[in-house]
């Protein structure tokens, strides 16, 4: 039984995925030659490719730039009051809404920022909150 289990595990984890993994590796290395990736430790490479999974939400608040708003405007204070009361999973969902990912990109956490913009619509009550994920801009009507 032990030999059977060992052979089965070897097949499932190594042999059965060998061809798909080789295809993936060949494609990955075509776009990302290994010389550049060798400078990273595995944990650093994971952050570069996947982004940060730990967040400092207060730091994120400090890094926000406001357009057509001031930091002490009531809308902004309300936004942050509600945001900080959200559970961690909802904050990550907001990040996904804003950036397209529930992780902060691989740059330093201190450098990540986004903008909150007043879209200056005629009737703000009829305008939804929306985001430009490429530019990390949140359009927040008053």
TrEMBL record:
GO terms for cellular component: cytoplasm. The keyword NADP does not apply. GO terms for molecular function: ligase activity; ubiquitin protein ligase activity. It comes from the Eukaryota. GO terms for biological process: protein ubiquitination; ubiquitin-dependent protein catabolic process. The active site is at residue 134. PANTHER family: HECT DOMAIN-CONTAINING PROTEIN (PTHR45622:SF69), UBIQUITIN-PROTEIN LIGASE E3A-RELATED (PTHR45622). This is HERC4 ligase.
